[in-house]
Amino acid sequence: MVILNKIESKFKALKHEKEFAFPQIKHKNIYLFSIPTFGNIGDLAIVEAERKFLNDNYSDWNLILIPDYATNKAVKFIKENINNEDLILIHGGGM
Fold first, then answer.
1. Parallel, antiparallel, or unpaired: how do β-strands 87-90 and 29-35 relate?
2. In a domain? residue 23
3. For the chain, first and last CA: distance in Å?
4. Which residues, at least 6 apart from 40, have a Cβ–Cβ distance to it below 8 Å?
5. What is the mean pLDDT of the segment spanning 70-89?
6. Sheet hosting strand 62-67, strand order edge to edge
7. Predicted structure pTM score
8. Contact in structure between 33 and 86 (CB atoms under 8 Å)
């Protein structure tokens, strides 16, 4: 249960779109869309597993977690900043 509480607390800050800001963009970016902010522990655990997998296997890439409410803002941003090396992924939980 401690791990699930840690996972949930990581995403509590992602409650309002006005709080979401893109980090500095680097050469290789992974955009992970639809990060849940509604508190479903199962979906949050999936996000944590996705984050760990991507950090372990793409450690030299910039991982950008995009909360579910920020999709429109993210699409506009990515259209202006995407490069040929970037990856766009969607969270694997049920939405």
1. parallel
2. no
3. 23
4. 93
5. 89
6. 62-67, 29-35, 87-90
7. 0.74
8. no
Range of the domain at 78: 2-11+28-90
Q: What is the pLDDT of residues 4-60, one digit of tens each?
A: 666 556 555 445 445 677 767 778 999 999 888 877 788 888 989 999 999 999 999
Looking at the structure of the chain, the number of domains it has is 1
Asked whether residue 66 is assigned to any structural domain, the reply reads yes
- CA-to-CA distance for 50 and 84, rounded, in angstroms? 22
What residues have CB less than 8 Å from 59, skipping those under 6 apart?
none
Q: How many residues does the chain have?
A: 95
Query: Could you identify the residue written with the tokens 């006005």?
Result: 18
Helix ranges (DSSP H) in the chain: 2-11, 41-57, 71-81
